[in-house]
Design a protein that fits this description.
The structure is a homodimer of 491-residue chains. By secondary structure, chain A is of the alpha+beta class. The first copy, chain A, contains 18 helices and 16 strands.
C-alpha cells in the first residue's frame, strides 16, 4: 500500500510550517492591535446551520459527515424503506434528486465552509455573553469539495476579522487599514477593489432582473476583455432580453478604459465615477423608478474613499472602485471588498483574490437575531503563501531550529550529556542529544541537514578533563572550552 | 430556529482562547527547546489509512465523510443495486452488517482519530525528504464519535511529540523530561506511570492468552479496588479458564498495597518490583517457556528509571511502575506512559489521564516502511484546561486585550481620531475607536466590559486645544494632557 492523502489536501513540512506561521502571526498581530479578539468554533456544524447560506453552488461543495453508528436506521422503518426502494428502483429519476432526499437522512452534520456563517451562529447563540460591538478574529481551516487545481485546495485556512453590532462605515475604513498594514508588512504589492451590493442591486432592479445581480456583475466584469459586443452576447446567452441589455449599456461605461484618465489617481477616479453614477440615476430620461439603493451605495463608498484618503495611507494607487465586483456569497448586502496582487508592480501572474469581505445586514437574522449588521474580511493564507513564495518575499531569518546538537559517543557519555542538556534547556537554549551512538560523521550530517549551528562533542576524554569540543558548522571553526563556559559561548 | 452546535463540540470565547493558548504555548515552547519541529496534516485522511489501527472500538468511533457529489453512484450499477436491495430487504440481517458493507461504498474519507497514525503515514509518504531520526510535534484537533460526557468531547486538540527512526531509550527519557517540564511550568501536581507492552505480552503468553493483553491488564488494574477475589470473578466472566487465572496469581502481587513499603521512594520501588518480576521468570517452578519478552521489557524500564533518577529531576515521588497500565491503542509495542493528576497533592477528583504515549515498532510498516521504531507522547489540552481551571492555576496576567479606547463624539471627531489611532498603532499600542457615536456612558461601559484600561476623549474642544482627556479605568483617575504626550503616557 502506497500511502497518500485525499486529493486537494496537503501535509505541511517543518519548513512550510515556519513560513505559514509567519503569515498567521503577521495577520494575528495586526488584528490584535486593532482590538479584535480571538474565538474558535467547531469544525462540524449542524447541517441546517450551513445549508442555504452560500448559494446552490456553495451548498453542493459542503462536505457532509455520515451519521455515526447505524446511519441506515431511518430506512429500517418500513415506510421509509419502501420510499427508498421506490426511489432507487424507479426509472428515470434523476440521481441528484435521490441524493438530495437521502442525504439529510444519513447525514446531520457538515464541515464548515467558511468562518462567517459559524461566526453569525456563534454571535446569536452566545449573545448574552457578548459585549457589542463585537470585534472578533478567527484563524481556522475550512473545507470545500471544490475541484482541486493549482492554488485551490479542499482544506485551507481562513483568517477572518469581523465586527458585528455596528453599522458605522468606520468599520469598513478600519478593515481597509488592516488590509493595508498586513500586505505592507508582508511586502506584497496589492490592489484593493471596492464595490457596494446596493449599487449592483439597484442596477439589477433597474433592468427588471432583481435576482440576477451576480450574472450582471460577471458580464460587466468582462467588458475590458471581450468588449461591449461580447458582453451583450453573453447576456443574451444567459436569457436577458434586448430591452434589459440596452438598459445596462450606460453602466458598462464604468468599466471602459476611457474612464481611466491617467491624470487622476484612483481616489479621484473613484469619486468621479461615483458622481457619474449618481448623475445617471437622477437623469429623468433613464426613468429610474427606485434610485435609493444605488444612491445609498454610492454615498457609502464615497465616505470610505474620502476617509481613507484623509488618513494618508501609503496606498494612493492601490484602492479602486469596481462596479463589476460581485463576490459569490449570498449574504453580502453593502460594501464588498476584494484584494488582488498588483501584477503591474511585480513579476506575478497571480490573478486570484488574496483577501475579500464585505458587509452583511441579515446574517444573524437567519439564526434569530434580526437588525444586527456585520462587516468583515478574510485573508486567504494559502494563496498569500503562494504569492510570497513566488515573489521570494519570505524573510531569510524565520527558519527556527535547534541551536545545539550534543554528539552521542555511547552509554556513559550520553548519560553525562543528559545533564549538560538539562542545563542548556534551563538557560533557554534549544538543544538535543543525538539519541543513538551512531558514527560521528552521520551525527554531524544530521546537524548539517537540520541547520543546527553548534555541535558539542563530549567523549570519555572530555568527561575527564572537563573541557568540551565546540564546533560552529557555519564557520567550520572548532574550539575547546571548559564545560562551564559552554552556555556563555553559545548564547 | 434556535442556533446550536453538534453535541460533544464546543465554541471557544475570547476568554477561553487566551487560556487555551497559554497551554498550547507552554507545550510548544518545551517541544521546541528539545528540538522537535512542527508539522501539520489534513483533517481528512483516506479511510484505509485510519481503519484497523485503533481496535474495533476505535474504528467505530471514526467520523466518516460522505462522498461529495452523487454518493449513490455505486448503487446505480444493477448488480450493486440488487445487492443493496437484498441487504435491506433481507429479514434478520444485522444492521451493523449492512452498515459495514455500505459505508466504504459511500464514504472514502474520514476525520483523523489521533495524530500518531497520520504522522506514521506522513513519515512513509515523505521519507525521502526527512532527516532521521525525525523529531516532530503536531498540535491539531482530532475527532471521535464518543458518547459525549463531562470532560470528553467529540472534537478536541492533541499536542503530540514523536521521534521516529531511533530505538534508543534516551528518547523515552527525553519525553519524560518534557512531561516533567510542561506540568511543572503549568503547576499541575502529577504522577507519571510507566509500563512496557513486552511485559504485558509476556504475561499474556505465559497464561496462554496471547491476544488478551488488554483484558488481563484491565483486570489486574482493579485489584486494589475489588481485591483478588473480585479480579478472579471478572476474569472468569470474561471466559478465562481456572488454570489461566491461577497462573496470573503471582503477577497480581505487583499491584497489592503490601508491595508499597513507605520507606522506599517510587524509583526504588520500581527497581525492586522489576527485580522481583525477573526473579519470577527465572523461577523454574513457574515453567516459564518464553521469558525473553518480560525480561526485555523489565530491562528497558529499569534503564529509564535509572536514567531519570540520575538526572535528579524534581519528580522523585511522581514516577512509578504500574504493571496494570495497558492503554487502549493497538499499535504500542514497548514502553507505555500515562500521566495523571496527583490527587493526593491537590483538591482534585480528576482521574482521567492528562498525557499518554508509548513506543510503536511497526506502525510505519503498515504503510510500507518496515523496521522503523517510533515513540511519542500526547498532551490532552482540553483535560489540562479543566484541571488548570479546577485548581485555579491560570496566571492572572494572561488576559490580553485592547489598551486604549478612543471615544466617538461624531463625524468630525471620529475622522480626527482615525489619525490618532494610526499613530497609536504605529507605536505598537493596541487601540480602537468606538465605531458609533453612541452615548458616552455606553462607550465607557464597553471599555469596562472589555477590560480596556485607558479611555481617551477627544471632542470638538479638545481638537481645538490640542489637549486630550485620558482616563485610567483601573484607578478612575482622569488627566488632561497634550495630544503629543499621549503615547508616552500610555506606554
Amino acid at each position: 500500500m502506497k500511502p497518500s492523502i485525499p486529493k486537494g489536501s496537503r501535509d505541511f513540512s517543518p519548513q512550510e510550517m515556519v513560513k505559514r506561521n509567519y503569515i498567521f502571526d503577521t495577520i494575528r498581530k495586526v488584528y490584535q492591535s486593532y482590538g479584535y479578539q480571538p474565538i474558535e468554533t467547531p469544525a462540524m456544524e449542524n447541517s441546517e446551520t450551513l445549508m442555504g447560506k452560500y448559494g446552490d453552488e456553495g451548498d453542493r461543495l459542503i462536505f457532509k459527515i455520515l451519521n455515526s453508528g447505524d446511519f441506515l436506521l431511518p430506512f429500517q422503518n418500513p415506510l421509509d424503506k419502501a420510499f427508498l426502494d421506490w426511489k432507487i428502483q424507479g426509472q428515470g429519476i434523476d440521481k441528484v434528486g435521490i441524493y438530495r432526499e437521502m442525504a439529510p437522512l444519513i447525514s446531520e452534520k457538515a464541515l464548515r465552509y467558511d468562518l462567517t456563517v459559524p461566526f453569525a451562529r456563534y454571535v446569536v447563540q452566545h449573545r448574552n455573553d457578548i459585549t457589542f460591538p463585537f470585534k472578533r478574529y478567527q484563524i481556522q481551516p475550512v473545507w470545500r469539495a471544490d475541484r482541486p487545481q493549482k492554488g485551490r485546495y479542499r482544506e485551507f485556512y481562513q483568517c477572518d476579522a469581523d465586527v458585528i453590532g455596528s453599522d458605522s462605515l468606520l468599520n469598513e475604513v478600519e478593515l481597509i487599514q488592516i488590509i493595508d498594514e498586513v500586505f505592507t508588512t508582508l511586502g506584497v504589492p496589492f490592489i484593493i477593489k471596492l464595490n457596494n451590493r446596493k449599487i449592483l442591486q439597484g442596477v439589477a432592479e433597474f433592468i427588471g432582473a432583481p435576482d440576477r445581480m451576480i450574472d450582471i456583475a460577471t458580464a460587466i466584469d468582462k467588458v475590458e476583455k471581450i468588449n461591449v459586443s461580447g458582453v451583450y452576447k453573453e447576456l443574451q446567452d444567459k436569457g436577458f432580453t434586448e430591452e434589459q441589455i440596452e438598459k445596462l449599456d450606460d453602466f458598462l461605461l464604468l468599466k471602459k478604459p476611457a474612464q481611466n484618465p491617467k491624470s487622476m489617481d484612483s481616489y479621484e477616479l473613484a469619486i468621479a465615477d461615483l458622481k457619474w453614477l449618481r448623475d445617471r440615476i437622477t437623469d429623468d430620461s433613464l426613468e429610474f423608478s427606485q434610485p435609493e439603493s444605488i444612491d445609498k451605495g454610492a454615498n457609502q463608498l464615497e465616505y470610505i474613499f474620502k476617509s481613507i484618503r484623509a488618513l494618508n495611507l501609503d496606498l494612493s494607487q492601490k484602492i479602486e472602485f469596481d462596479v463589476s465586483l460581485a463576490r459569490g456569497l449570498n449574504y453580502y448586502t453593502g460594501t464588498i471588498i476584494e484584494v488582488k496582487v498588483d501584477v503591474s508592480k511585480c513579476k506575478s501572474e497571480f490573478t486570484s483574490s488574496i483577501c475579500g469581505g464585505g458587509r452583511y445586514d441579515n446574517l444573524t437574522g437567519i439564526f434569530g437575531l434580526p437588525d444586527v449588521s456585520g462587516v468583515g474580511v478574510s485573508f486567504g493564507a494559502d494563496r498569500i503563501y503562494d504569492v510570497l513564495e513566488e515573489l521570494n518575499l519570505f524573510p531569510n531569518d524565520i527558519v527556527a531550529s535547534t541551536k545545539v546538537l550534543l554528539i552521542n559517543f555511547g552509554e556513559k557519555e550520553s548519560q553525562f550529556c543528559l545533564k549538560v542538556l538539562k542545563d542548556l534547556h534551563k538557560a533557554g537554549i534549544s538543544a538535543e542529544l543525538y539519541p543513538d551512538a551512531k558514527k560521528i560523521n552521520k551525527q554531524f550530517e544530521y546537524a548539517d541537514k537540520r541547520n543546527i549551528p553548534y555541535v558539542v562533542s563530549i567523549g570519555e576524554k572530555e568527561m575527564e578533563s572537563g573541557r568540551v569540543a565546540l564546533k560552529n558548522l557555519l564557520t567550520k571553526e572548532q574550539i575547546e572550552i571548559p564545560l562551564s563556559d559552554l552556555i556563555t559561548h553559545i548564547k
